[in-house]
Design brief:
The structure is a single chain. The protein is mainly alpha-helical and 450 residues long. The protein is built from 20 helices and twelve strands. A three-stranded parallel beta sheet has the order 1-2-3. Strands 4-5-8 form a three-stranded antiparallel beta sheet. A two-stranded antiparallel ribbon has the order 6-7. The N and C termini lie far apart (78 Å).
Length: 450
């Protein structure tokens, strides 16, 4: 198989585009074929170097490499011009000076735009001559046959009057020259396919097999958009997702795999993916489900690996100890700092947490008792087991519930009621820093009561 991923660089690579890229990559790798990366940059205003880099950056982050390219469509101008002239000379295309309004008016009156077929010497845009009778059949691997009656098709413009070609012509020529055997893309391109098939037919060339992927929907059944959460690959990265989790999850969206199995390395995904098994119905992208996948991948990383990822993500160093006590509680890299950042930057200010614990009746008393228990631990013995024994001993001695002691201590050291395990957190901070933070909280409580 020779496949191509051919994005139009008009912005960041959205999740649907990422699935298209991934499916092409998996099919190429699973078949021992090749993947061609082509940048379809005929929209010169929007195809900026910055937008191209966003596409390449997303593919690199997902670790989707390519065998040929990137090839820029606009660099094939000479070949496009030669093919265009070939069609003009053979009578399969013609020039027309009709404006869009002219064509629309004629079509409204006659049901087609054939009245604007011009003479070979006429100036103007170039249109492909659609046969008057018959139909063009798109034999889609996923969707089956889709038939387009020629009587309902307009003669499409394939080049502007200045000779610059348009998308549907350029993409057919480029697929032909690259020897592309399979075109896998979103179903929003289905209406373009008969036009491209007619170009192949006019050139007397064989066309690739086409497979149009159903679009992705959100959990509400509507077309995926920003209202459903992250919309692009870069936004997923910024939200702390791991590329291997994104690849695993996105690959399963409509792939037709065994529902009882979910977690696959990409090599297994490449072995299993088959175009014939892909669902015809829209698949649902659910970021909550992606978080579940990501949590599995986070927990599967060793402490050293996860630390390296988190240090790169946060731009901070020396996080290993915090990672070790937090890794079971986070699902994304972005979860780490809200959970454990207090270990490095000091307590946050959460008035609601304060009001529920230290500021509540008996809260300051419990915190004061906890301070005495912690201060009673010898400095050289201040570890997780000693901390747990001291605090649980206090709970038992006073007949309190664990949360009556643990939560005031947690708010004193973290500022919130959410943290890694309280014993692990206190031990990691150390005796001096823990007592310093507890004393500061007690002083605040005294000041509030005065």
């Amino acid at each position: 198989m020779r496949l191509r991923f051919a994005p139009s660089p008009t912005g960041a690579l959205h999740i649907g585009g990422a699935r298209t890229a991934l499916y092409n990559w998996l099919l190429a790798r699973g078949s021992g074929g090749a993947l061609v990366l082509r940048i379809e940059d005929t929209d010169r205003e929007r195809s900026t170097p910055e937008n191209v880099e966003q596409i390449l950056d997303a593919l690199r982050w997902l670790e989707l490499d390519w065998d040929e390219g990137p090839i820029f469509q606009t660099h094939n101008g000479e070949r496009h011009a030669q093919a265009l002239q070939q069609l003009l000379d053979a009578g399969h295309a013609y020039r027309s000076t009709a404006t869009a309004d002219d064509v629309r008016a004629f079509k409204d009156a006659h049901g087609h735009d054939r009245g604007f077929r011009g003479e070979p010497e006429a100036q103007g845009a170039v249109r492909l001559r659609v046969p008057d009778a018959g139909e063009t059949v798109v034999d889609d691997v996923i969707r089956g046959e889709a038939r387009f009656a020629h009587v309902h098709m307009d003669d499409p413009v394939i080049a502007r009057a200045d000779g610059s070609v348009l998308y549907n012509f350029a993409v057919a020529i480029d697929d032909l020259d690259a020897g592309i055997t399979h075109v896998v893309r979103g179903e929003d391109h289905l209406s373009n396919t008969p036009k491209q098939l007619l170009v192949f037919e006019a050139l007397g060339a064989s066309a690739p097999r086409y497979a149009h992927l159903p679009l992705l929907h959100g959990p509400d059944g509507k077309k995926l958009s920003k209202r459903h959460g992250a919309a692009s690959v870069q936004e997923l990265r910024e939200a702390g997702y791991l590329p291997e989790a994104v690849v695993n999850y996105v690959a399963l969206l409509g792939a037709g795999f065994d529902a009882e199995e979910e977690l696959f390395p990409r090599e297994e995904l490449a072995r299993r993916l088959r175009l014939e098994r892909i669902s015809k119905s829209p698949a649902v992208f659910d970021e909550k489900k992606l978080r579940h996948f990501n949590g599995h991948y986070v927990r599967s990383l060793g402490v050293e690996q996860l630390t390296a990822r988190l240090e790169a993500f946060t731009g901070r160093e020396g996080l290993r100890d915090g990672v070790e006590i937090s890794r079971e509680k986070i699902q994304t890299l972005a979860d780490f700092w809200p959970l454990a950042g207090f270990l490095y930057d000091g307590p946050v200010d959460d008035p609601a947490a304060w009001a529920k614990t230290i500021g509540a009746e008996g809260g300051a008393e419990a915190l004061g008792a906890a301070r005495e228990a912690l201060a009673g631990i010898a400095p050289d013995a201040f570890g997780q087991e000693a901390v747990e024994a001291a605090l649980r001993g206090l709970v038992e001695a006073r007949g309190w519930k664990p949360k009556q002691v643990f939560q005031p201590v947690r708010v004193a050291i973290a500022g919130t009621t959410i943290s890694p395990g309280i014993f692990e957190s206190v031990a990691l901070l150390g005796r001096d820093e823990t007592l310093r933070r507890v004393d500061a909280a007690l002083a605040r409580a005294v000041g509030a009561a005065a």
